[in-house]
Design a protein that fits this description.
Largest sheet: 2 strands, antiparallel
Low-confidence stretches: 91-100, 502-512, 616-622, 624-661, 778-786
Helix content: over 70%
Distance between the termini: 121 Å
Mean pLDDT: 76
Shape: flat
Strand content: under 5%
Number of helices: 18
Strand order of the largest sheet: 1-2
Length: 786
């Protein structure tokens, strides 16, 4: 298992590395593309730099020519001035002489302007060059940062991909297991579907036959109607008005809708009240809730288990209403289930009321509660009591109406209208009480929200409670209007008449009467008649049935006896196994003692053989007999306490030594039998061990093959890992070389710029000197003229 886990681990590592390879290849290609882009940019920058160097060299060469030209002109000027001083010429000559210095000065001025222009160009090119270098440096830093970020993102994505691959592999294994299970389920479902289709065909054919038979029975048997006795006539199917039944069904469906809305509103009110009690007056997160609020929250959490059954019971009652049967209070048997569920809801509200009132009293006991807020809380206190009392009244009238379908509670039909009128009044009281609760709670909440201790969570919860109370007000208003609007329909007599009477009401017989279980009896009668007309099932003769019963009883008794015998035999086998283990241990101890005694007997025999000649045999035997008990007790106290049987056996062995060869032969036979048994047991154990060894050998061979395959895959994975590490090292080396080359180029460019700055400074100095020399010659002329 450990090797399998190791192989599985190696396989998972190999899968991880194999998944990393395309990511690394992509990263390598991206880095290679960026490096190529950097190389192209570097080539372009080198070309621009060479261009700038050529321009600078041309400018320096031009400056040298201009400086030589200026020197040559200066020398010519000096020679001209010297000739002016030495020679005295005519008046024409001094007039012509000033013309040559003017030409030279104009030429010099033009050269100086050209030099300034070139100097400006050099400055501009230098500035452009500096700005370009700065831009390139910023871009380089930005690209380096992006490279580092991409590297970090790549590492993080690699790690995430590893984790995701592991998770996906686990999910894949789970999905495969689920897929196999689903495939087996689909196969079983297909087989079951085929069986169900076959059963459906058989059931359809059987139902078709039953329908034809039932139609025949109805046509033959149903014209028999007994209308003479009133008690029997109530069990006949009454003739009724279907419009009245449809109207009743429509009203019940509307009442179901109104009740579902009321249940939803009550559920929301209780749920949001639970959230509020956990927030206020004590925050359940930061402050512990009071015991009253704890129980209150627990009871509020159980609201759905009391509200939903009421809605479900009324819906089930709606499902029992059919067009072919008339529904009245006497026949509405399922309405009693709704009354029971509603009684449970009212009991839940009675159980909840004390804690609800105690929670309001706790809120009044707070220090932040003002007198006006306390008054509003007490108003809510009284309105909640009144609401619970109204629900109790409503439960009383609903129970009274529902029990009319029970045999133990029958009121005259004339009293039913008064029941409905009282129920309508109670529903109006319910509407007014819910409106009072909503009004008082709204005023209470508006005062609470003005307090500084009111949190936003409390405000939102209170708003939800107010909205649920508003929905309760609308629901109770709808129910009250619905019931008061249809009170005339409830006042009408039921639209049916018993068979044998000409009118719907019979005052002499307290009106028409129909049993509540008429529909059930009709179904039972139809099934009974269908059974009568059907063929009789195969029966077994009485004598054979009695005999089979006796056989069955005897077989069951024998089975019970055998089971008892089996249990007793198992207990005996367990006890015998325990005794066997005990006696095996005793046998081992006795074997150890026997080996020791044989050694002692051999020593005694040697002593006897040596001392027979001297005549001291008897003394040595007595001494040995005296010493042996002490040695035996000292050797056996560490193992088990010595018994009288063991001592007798040991003394018997000494007697056997002295007795002769007959006892020795029996002892040897016993020892031989014992060792043969031991040899047989050892042979069986050896066979078992050999079979296990063969099994283990086959398993080891299979594991060895798996190990070889895993080692091959491991070597292949290691080679791929080495290749990927080499590629990664090459990428790192290329990155280092590119960074070093960029650094060298930047240093060379900085040095070159420094040298260019020095040259430009020298040229600027020379230009300044030339400008000063250009300005100085007129002054010297004035001095010379003076």
């Amino acid at each position: 298992m450990a090797d399998a886990a190791k192989y599985q681990k190696l396989a998972s590592e190999y899968a991880k590395l194999k998944a990393q390879i395309p990511v690394l290849k992509k990263a390598y290609l991206d880095e290679q593309g960026t490096s190529n882009e950097y190389k192209e940019q570097l080539k372009a920058k080198d070309q621009a730099l060479r261009k700038y160097e050529q321009e600078v060299d041309s400018l320096s060469f031009r400056n040298q020519q201009l400086s030589k030209r200026v020197l040559f002109l200066q020398e010519e000027l000096d020679t001209i001035e010297a000739t002016k001083k030495k020679k005295n010429r005519n008046a024409e000559q001094p007039a012509a002489a000033p013309t040559s210095p003017g030409v030279y000065s104009e030429e010099l001025f033009s050269k100086i302007q050209e030099n300034e222009r070139l100097h400006k160009q050099v400055d501009d090119s230098n500035r452009k060059y500096q700005t370009r270098i700065q831009e390139l440096e910023t871009k380089l830093e930005y690209f380096e940062k992006e490279c580092n970020q991409h590297q970090q993102v790549l590492q993080s994505t690699l790690q995430k991909s590893k984790d995701q691959i592991d998770r996906l592999q686990q999910e894949k294994a789970m999905v495969e297991v689920k897929l196999q299970k689903l495939e087996s389920d689909v196969k079983s479902y297909r087989s079951r579907a085929e069986l169900s289709e076959e059963k459906l065909d058989s059931v359809q054919s059987r139902l078709q036959d039953d329908l034809q038979q039932a139609r025949k029975i109805i046509a033959d048997k149903l014209p028999f109607i007994d209308t003479k006795h009133r008690d029997l006539n109530c069990l006949n199917l009454p003739t009724h008005d279907r419009k009245h039944q449809l109207r009743a069904r429509e009203l019940v469906s509307q009442s179901v809708n109104h009740l579902s809305e009321l249940v939803q509103a009550l559920s929301n009110f209780y749920t949001y009240s639970e959230q509020r009690s956990k927030i206020y007056p004590n925050d359940g997160i930061n402050e512990p809730l009071s015991p009253i609020n704890l129980v209150y929250c627990k009871y509020l959490h159980e609201n759905v288990s009391y509200l939903r059954p009421c809605e479900q019971a009324l819906r089930s009652f709606l499902g029992t209403l059919n067009e072919d049967s008339l529904t009245t209070l006497e026949t509405a048997t399922d309405l009693f289930v709704f009354s029971k569920n509603f009684k449970g809801l009212v009991g839940y509200m009675n159980k909840l009321l004390p804690y609800q009132l105690a929670s309001i009293e706790e809120e009044c006991a707070l220090s932040s509660c003002t007198s006006t807020l306390e008054n509003k809380n007490m108003d809510l206190h009284h309105s909640l009591k009144h609401l619970t009392s109204v629900f109790n009244k409503l439960d009383t009238y609903i129970t009274l109406l529902a029990t009319q379908s029970q045999n133990h509670c029958h009121y005259p039909h004339q009293n039913h209208f008064s029941f409905f009128v009282c129920l309508s009044k109670v529903l109006q009281d319910l509407d007014t009480s819910v409106r009072d609760v909503s009004k008082h709670y709204n005023s209470k909440v508006s005062l609470e929200h003005q307090l500084p201790t009111a949190t936003q969570k409390l405000k939102t919860t209170d708003e939800c409670i107010v909205s649920s109370l508003i929905s309760m007000v609308t629901c109770t208003g709808k129910v009250s209007a619905f019931f008061s609007g249809n009170i005339d329909f409830f006042k009408e007599n039921p639209g049916y008449r018993t068979r044998g009477s000409s009118i719907g009401t019979d005052t002499t017989m307290d009106g028409p009467r129909s049993g509540p279980a008429t529909v059930c009896f009709r179904q039972k009668a139809a099934t009974y008649l269908s059974q009568l007309s059907g063929p009789c099932p195969e029966t077994v003769p009485h004598s054979i049935a009695v005999q089979n019963r006796k056989v069955l009883l005897s077989s069951t008794e024998s089975r019970e006896g055998l089971s008892k015998q089996l249990t007793t035999a198992q207990t005996r086998v367990n006890k015998l196994e325990q005794e066997k283990e005990h006696w095996m241990l005793e046998l081992q101890l006795l074997q150890i003692k026997h080996d020791k005694e044989t050694e002692k007997v051999q020593k005694l025999e040697k002593q006897l053989a040596s001392k027979l000649a001297s005549g001291a045999v008897q003394d040595s035997i007595e001494d040995n007999i005296i010493k042996e008990p002490t040695t035996r007790t000292s050797s056996t106290d560490a193992v088990v306490p010595q018994t009288s049987e063991a001592k007798a056996a040991m003394f018997g062995k000494l007697d056997m030594v002295s007795a002769g060869s007959s006892d020795a032969e029996t002892r040897e036979v016993l020892i031989k039998n014992h060792f043969t048994n031991r040899i047989n047991e050892q042979a069986l154990q050896l066979q078992l061990v050999e079979s296990k060894a063969v099994n283990f050998h086959s398993e080891v061979r299979a594991l060895h093959k798996q190990l070889q395959i895993a080692e091959k895959s491991k070597t292949r994975c290691e080679e791929e890992l080495k290749d990927s590490s080499q590629v990664l090292a090459q990428l790192k080396d290329e990155l280092q070389t590119t960074t070093k080359s960029y650094e060298g180029q930047l240093s060379m460019m900085s040095e070159h710029l420094a040298s260019m700055n020095e040259k430009l400074a020298q040229q600027k100095d020379e230009i300044d000197e030339l400008k000063s020399q250009k300005v100085q010659p007129p002054k010297e002329k004035k001095k010379f003229r003076k």
